[in-house]
Amino acid sequence: MGTPTSGSGRHRRRIRLALPVAAAGVAAAVAAALISTSASAATRPTPTVKPSVSAPSQATLNKRLAGAVAADSSWATKKTTSKTGSTGTAVSPKIIGGGTTTISTAPWMAQLWYQDTADDINFFCGGSVVSPTKILTAAHCVKDENGKAYNWKAYGVVVTGTASLPTSNSDGTDVDLHGGTVSGVLRQWNNPSYSPSTINNDVAVLTLAAPVKATPIKLTTSTDTTSYKAGTSAKVYGWGRTSSTSDDISETLKTATLPMQSDSTCSGYFGSLFVKGHMVCAGKPATGSDTGSTATCNGDSGGPLVVGGRIVGVVSWGVTQDGVECVVQGSYSVFTKVSTYVGAVYAQIADTNLSYTDGKADLFARKSSSKVGYELDSKGTSLASRLSWGDWSGVNVILQADLDRDGFQDLVYRVASTGDIYWDHFVLNSDQTSGSWATKKIFTNWKTRKAVVIPGDLTGDYLPDVLSEDSSGVLWLYPGKGNGTFAARVKIGGGWSQYNQLRGVGDFNGDGKADLLARKSSGGDLYLYKGTGKSGTGLFSARVKVRTGWTGFNTLAAVGDLTGDGKADFLARTTGGTLYLYPGTGKATTEIFGTRKSLGTGFQQYDIFG
To answer: Model confidence over 553-564: pLDDT tens digits?
Structure first.
């Protein structure tokens, strides 16, 4: 490591790692409000608002990355946060004892580079592409040991599509990506319960400013127990340190196979430092030296632990004791247990908002008198002043979605005169700093369809699907392919005509699967249909009544996570025009929503909510 190469003048700099170290008459009213038609259907709507594309230029990204790669002894050594306990102080991990691998084997691997020269903060983390614009990593790569957030938008870059670390020339003005792609970060999210002192809830998601072509990897499910059984073979990936006695990180991607350990084994060694249900440990007991040890170490933080092609863990922490790092005798590598956090992470993967900046779902509403569509941005528990999107006459359904998972909110709408369904989606130009709206017809003659819903990923492939109820009350699934096309439709079943509203965007019970809410025409009871990830008649679990007698509302809407807490929320408008936010709790019971919050009055002026 760190040996200059001859010929090209490029060389691999010796890097002293600055890691974020982890420490130890309702039906009639509804029909009028939501399925109303318009006489002016001669033209289709055209969005008049473009997303605020704030991706740095490629030159800026390259310069930022070159500066990070060229840093050597100037890299600050971050102070570790201590955990009390007989095992010593917890630190971020590396792969010691692994072998090299290729990017074709792990195409979802990402390098996270951060350099803030003003504050002398420099570090490297790993991550996983879980959607074209989403990188799963560790929360300690997003917040420091004092709980202060790093500014990834201003100082970070993400490299995907290569197994090699970038190399730079001697003065850091140029960088070779070795076939990879460098991307800027638009925003960051860490689990709001993350604790820097205990490294509990150590999971985060970075949203890229533009989609990448790297093949995403899926998360495990919330009900997965098999992957965590002691002895199960798991693989960890990363570019971290390959020796406990050297600060050099690996120039090429490495992997190692680790056996999963039981909670009792992990607790037996780490004591109270190990939080059962939130953490998992893996590997054979370290020997106290590099010889005979296979472990994660500094630089591997945020990378994936994989079983059966799915992420089951995120590299979180290890221990150092008496000057020994990462291979303390008898110790194991510790990971965030992904099955516990899959619901919150899925909310970030599926998140898409009209403002494109804050990770909170926003509301699209059409004014009934003028047919003008408006964007009402979420401020958490209130809505900002509306922004006009122009004339939206001639349509009787408008849905907010992200069919291609590019991070831009799409609008799917039905033309009243023909019943045709169109998909308006924003397409970036090649410079990734500007773009334009494109329109594609995705379904023809759905004039008699009683309901159209885009709840998210129903089939478990991380691509949004479409549900439609036909005139006889049969519900159909149209599995999305991520490009505005769909696989052959699948019959879910009949009897859906008993409901006057079908709504859903997101995961209401926190298991990482999209769900559906349905209100009965008779009596107004509200039911939750939990997604199972299976197709056909098994698409949903048996319904659960979550509210009784919701006859006082004439409009229901679901647009995702309005509060930004990682749980899907719900909107309901009274007959008098008051709009209420029902914040999601993640519970599939009558406690599905927290205390409602009024978003204001006068909402009777709108005839369609997205």
So the answer is: 999 999 999 998
